[in-house]
Amino acid sequence: MASTMRKVSLRNLAAHKLRLILTVLSVVLGTSFIAGALIFTSTMSNSFNGIFDKVAIGVDTQISPKTTDTNAYGGVESLGVPDSVIQQIQRDKDKLGVAQIVPGYQSMMTIADSKGKAIQTGGAPTMGASWVPKTQALDPDGATILPGGRAPNGPHEAVLNESAAKRADLKVGSRTKVVVSAGNAKPFEVKIVGLVDMAGDTSGYTEMDFDAATAKTLFTDGSHASMVQLGAVKGVSADTLKQRINKEFPGYKVQTGDEVRQENKDAINSFLQIFNYILLAFAAIGLIVGTFIIYNTFSMIVAQRVRELALLRAIGAGRGQVLRSVMLEAVVVGLFGSIVGLGVGTGLAAGLQALLSSTGTGLPSGSLVVGPAAIIACLVVGVVVTTVSAIAPARRASRVAPVEAMRESQTDGAASLKVRTIIAIVLAVLSAVALAIGASGKGGNAALMVGIGALGTIIAVVCGAPALARPVVGALGLVLAKPFGKLGQLARTNAIRNPRRTAATAFALTLGLMLVAIIGTLGASFKSTIDRAVNDEVKAPIMAIGTGGTGALPPAVSKEIKKVDGVDSVISIHGVEGTLNGKEVGGNSPSGDLTKAANIKLVKGSSKLTPNGLLTSDKAAKKYHWSVGEKVTFTSHFGKKATVQVVGIYKSSALLDPWQMGNAAYEKLTPPSMRADYVDLIMLDDGADSAAVQQKIEDATGSYLTVKVQTKEEFANSSAQQINQMLVVLYGMLGLALIIAVLGIINTLALSVVERKREIGMLRAVGMLRKQVRRTIYLESVLISIFGALLGMVLGVIIGWCLVRTFREWMAGITPVVPWGTVLFTLVAAAVCGVLAALWPGIRAARTKPLEAIADV
């Protein structure tokens, strides 16, 4: 009998190919995203590892500062390794076992292409560094100058990596302009004397190398090296040399070449892991939506096979055999869908890799890596999700009694909703309390509480949506379907006949659009806050910002702006980073009287910032327990200290947080080679033409390559545009869930047409036209779609509103804003999607032949 039941299950699948395809498709969409995410990150990780395997080859030991991260303004958070250390190593090289010493000098910079515009890197860094001749290099097989070029010699010669030269349309003999991101260097012209084939030469990475003397002058204070690489004498291992250097120079980071390579790999893999988590989060959304479609599909399949299953029971099949039969179908569907999903996911990963490479994102290219993790995850998740989704329908199938075979009607799953509705009400109340608590607080704990409330809300919707379906869809039907007369009434009746099925179908759309509403509310709130902050807090009519990879403005830019006719004054805002009581902190330092260019809402003390003073926001004052008159000592990353006195406390704001330090203290903490600005606030002479002065400033600063001059309105708009770009990426990824949702509606309607075949045949027999059948299906789909969209948008806006409230800890002045445009557009789009989803099922229903349908048993 068991063998017979297996044959029945497999033949049933083969006999209903359309139903099989629709069910498999929902599994494919869920698993393909997981496979794509894992394959893409594995491929990127393998490509980067291949690059970093070539870094520091031949290096036995590397000495660098303990803090070497590039800061947000283009400098490096350390002066480097002093010349005195290099000289001591040179003197004691025999005792230490050092054979070669290679100092390195490097910093961020900007390079012009053949048209005089900054080379676009797609996010990859643009580095300036020192060229190491082959005779001095620790790795004889490292970077090499291609034929036709030579090594740089002197302050106006440089070599450039080959891929950057191609993108910039530069070649040997070309002259171009370069700007160092930090320090006092002005733009200067160099001649390209060679092209270099080097490790790490990705689609966006750019490196220009100068001779050692020039690089030291450009990128350091003249008495430090960015790092020092050492080669050991024969017989001294890398670990031994590391131990000797560590003992001799305990204040520095000392690593073997293997450790340098591994550190680079770990850093990029951490980034890729975060990226992977984001992709997998969206894959999980797709799987959740797909789970409901699969569940819905199997529920309908069981309902349509009541007679078949009852007859099997009548001829001797036990409940366990029927249960295993339905579960076997689920396993086959899950397995097949997972295999196809793996193939589709591989294609997605390849497509994403090609897209990112073609757009110059700086990511390396390499062959796809379809590892065991992607295969196992895809197969396990697909099979498990499908099997779990089929458990409830399978149990219902096993309980079908033989007497059901005598009934004309099919079960519709419309059992009492009382228990699940009570559960939904309890969960909804608890979730509302969690959301309210989260919205009343701020920071990470409050956001976590909102997340708990959101999860509870989703579960409440799963349980309570069937109870909501009848009244809500019924009300929508009275309004939207009424103009269509009896057809509209029939569509409304069909939509609310089986509230479980309607709710399960709509939930796919509800979840996707709930996330759209949450993201839309966050985006609208951020944009509104920035716009309000710029308009309320900034007095300066014109601003200059950096647009390069570092976002930095060399200090010389403000000097050029001050020379422009019509400019009254320029307040440059510097970034300050260091430690306070052993913890990393960051703030700002204005170059002049900040009150001229910005509105400061003073709470206590004075707004006049003294050279060694500190103006702090009330939020920062509360956090660090500062009061007016108190003295605070900051320490730079390389040991310099500056003591400042709190002169005033102002109301926290989005643009002025967390504190403003006097210029004298800033200069103590930040050496000249690391100084940079991130914005210049420009005040104009009385009566000056703003547009004309703006053009003059653009002309005066054009040689700095990355300076962008904007009015404060343009600055607010560009900030909003950046937020929009991030939202587009998120909306694009959420499109997967929405695609699955639409396919779920198609799936449900198509199966519903099969389920109602006799009913449709009867309607055709009594005179209903084909176009009327189609219209009825279209209206039913629109009602289900709008119900799901309305539920998702309402809940999403509420959750988004609560989540925005928690961001007050990180962004002063932020207030929730409802994205009404997004809400209205989404509801209209849902109706359109409903029509599109119903096209094929509607056509299929219209082709039902009355006599065949009536005779169908």
Write the layout of secondary structure elements.
Blueprint: H1 2-15, H2 17-52, E1 61-64, E2 81-82, H3 83-91, H4 93-96, E3 98-104, E4 106-111, E5 126-130, E6 144-145, E7 157-161, H5 162-168, E8 175-180, E9 188-197, E10 206-210, H6 212-219, E11 224-225, E12 227-232, H7 238-248, E13 253-256, H8 257-304, H9 306-314, H10 319-358, H11 372-398, H12 418-440, H13 444-481, H14 485-497, H15 499-537, E14 542-546, H16 556-562, E15 567-580, E16 583-590, E17 602-605, E18 613-617, H17 618-624, E19 631-635, E20 641-650, E21 659-661, H18 663-669, E22 677-684, H19 690-701, E23 707-711, H20 712-755, H21 757-765, H22 770-806, H23 820-846, H24 850-855
Parallel strand pairs: 5-10, 7-9, 18-20
Antiparallel strand pairs: 1-12, 1-13, 2-11, 3-12, 4-5, 4-8, 6-9, 7-10, 8-9, 14-22, 14-23, 15-16, 15-22, 17-20, 18-21, 19-20
